[in-house]
Amino acid sequence: MLKEINPSVNIMISPVVELLAAMFRTNCHEQLRSDSDSDYVPIELEKWVNQTRKALTPEMKSELEVFFNFESFFGMTLISNIIFSKQHDNVHSFISHLKDLSPLELITMFTETGYGTNRRIPSPIKDHTELISFINEMNLPEVEKWKLTYLCANAADSKNRFVKLIEEFYQQFYLPESERLAQIHNDSLSELENELQDNLEQKVGKLLNLDYDSNNVIFIPSYFYDSCSFSSYHDETEHLIYGYGVRSLQIKLHEKINEEKLYESFKALADENRIKMIKILIATPCSGYELAKKLGLSNSTISHHVSILSSQGVLTITKQDKKNLYTVNKDFIKITLESMSNFLTE
């Protein structure tokens, strides 16, 4: 159920979104760990990932790599549809909803990765040349473009494979954890609700790494995202869906500025590609897709660098024409460099 904190900030629990997060974590644990705002992953989460991976059949492992790959994250593109078709709170209802979707509807969602053009997939698809032209405009690695081309060309089979993967993973790995996860979600939402009782705008801005200006936000807790986060923008309602790792509340809202923090901030700046990104963004705000095109980097590489810079406060997010644009927090860079200079010379 959606709960309103104020007219533009809402919170909700979604076992369906968490199911997708669990599948993404299973396949991309190492990448999420490297993008984390924390130095470690809880032992129980590490244990769950290892046990789940050992129990996967070769077919499930292969299908997770197809639909929940860190470079393309096709399965995660359903989140916006899940929330606004009101399929977020019951996995069985969600699976029925998936089965009712046409193959083309599902494949269309897979193309909305956030690293494509503003065009939607041609509908109906008249020939493969038109389809390949559309996919080639997307900023995906070549192997992921070929994968998406195959999924689109075999849409009915792709749909059946995806539904089967969801059903099997839910029954075998998510359902046994559902009661524990429900308690974690409830506790986290209570914590978030308490946090937002005062200084709401400031705290929402910290959590989202943006200058909060009455944006319509829906917060969803995720155990499997731990101290990471994900977001999805719904064009029709102009809502930002923000999934936050349950440990990120304390990290982002109550992190102490100390010597260790200074080291981490300096490490975030000490990378050639991140410096290039900062120089580009100082000149003009860009979306992730535009940054990837300008730097010739893959979507996952850009996402990784943006995550690190945002977590340290170097980048903030602004909205323009329904797009997320990254801008540079110049004051933060100046303060960090001055602090490091003082630390080394005093």
Automatic annotation (TrEMBL):
Family matches, as SUPFAM superfamilies: Winged helix' DNA-binding domain
Keyword Repeat found: no
All residue ranges annotated as the HTH arsR-type domain in the record: 254-346
Coiled-coil positions: 175-202
PROSITE patterns: HTH_ARSR_2 (PS50987)
Keyword field: Coiled coil, DNA-binding, Transcription, Transcription regulation
A molecular-function term among this protein's GO annotations: DNA-binding transcription factor activity
InterPro entries hit by this protein: ArsR-like_HTH, HTH_ArsR_DNA-bd_dom, HTH_MetalResp_TranReg, WH-like_DNA-bd_sf, WH_DNA-bd_sf
Listed name of the protein: Winged helix-turn-helix transcriptional regulator
